[in-house]
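In response to a reviewer's request, we include the raw inputs and outputs for one of the modeled complexes. The two entities were modeled together in a single run.
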Amino acid sequence: MSRSRTPERIAETALALFNAFGEPNVTTNRIADELEISPGNLHYHFRTKQDLIDTLFSRFEHRMLELLGGDGIDEADVEDAWLFLHLVFENIAAYRFIYRDLNELCTRSRNLRRRIRAILKLSMRTASDLLAALERSGQLEAMALERESAVRNIVLISSYWIAFDQVMELDVEPRPDRAAIQVMSLVSPYLRGPAREQFEHLANAYR
Amino acid sequence: MSRSRTPERIAETALALFNAFGEPNVTTNRIADELEISPGNLHYHFRTKQDLIDTLFSRFEHRMLELLGGDGIDEADVEDAWLFLHLVFENIAAYRFIYRDLNELCTRSRNLRRRIRAILKLSMRTASDLLAALERSGQLEAMALERESAVRNIVLISSYWIAFDQVMELDVEPRPDRAAIQVMSLVSPYLRGPAREQFEHLANAYR
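The model returned the following structure tokens for the whole complex.
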């Protein structure tokens, strides 16, 4: 392969193998084997396996911040919320090795832990803003305690749906569409009027 | 220490270290060091680290099946449900190393994967029976789709609350009481009459 494409091909192959077998079960030698390059060539571009993990994590993080880091939410409707979750969950599915071993990655690297927690905290704020926008426009009715619980549950399920799916049903492809419905069902009992009908319509289409 | 207590002390120390640092980060040598015994003595009782994991898992599983494996649920109220979740979550907290690396343990051992999935499926059935019992006695009102989503979300949050807490707030003690409220809040909007008041009372006490 051409020299200049080597780092990119290493990163892509590492991502595919990490996602398929779990990062702890893939050595840099196996990645080099898969690409038919020498381990020395791989380590010339990525000194350690952690460097490779960091590169992949940065790509995931970049997309996540792009999606989460808007200017705040003024208006929201149920279809927007579903589309937004779908995009976030596609990114999570593309880098699912991170979520399979989230706690182990956090223990191994303080730097990753700080950045993962920043993403989770931003997710909590986004979920909270979204519920507030739905409430302002009369599409949602919930007590403060219910909203707080919902926000925590939304972020928990958003973070662990893919690990749970893998334990329950091995070797199935991730279903970001279904996961988005699963998360929205946390809020559906609080939806009012047309918003509730919109949710039921979506839920029946994507089960 | 007396010869006969050695296996038990090894198991207890392994559990404490696995819970504190994560199983992948604790070697059998470290366990032996902590107990001031030789690695040879440890391996006389537990040939491999996996044997030690299997022993601890069996204890966890025994208690879990004891809790989940009743004769079916005829009657239920909100306080019973909360107490039941609290007991289940105390067991999860006692063996939290399993839930920290659930997916990695499932990949490494087919036998553990089968047993973990059996526990999750039994949990789904128990959650489903519990909602059905609440519905029969007029304490809960939900559509079939809402009940299905709730059951899946209940088992997902029951399985990953402790991993999520660890990522979000490092070095805090597990809070099975708070986790029980978090799980019950998935169902609270569907509760009717006194059941709903009972939930609010509990929620305010254990936040």
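As requested, we also summarize the result in words. Chain A touches chain B through 45 residues (CB under 8 Å). Chain A has a mean pLDDT of 91.
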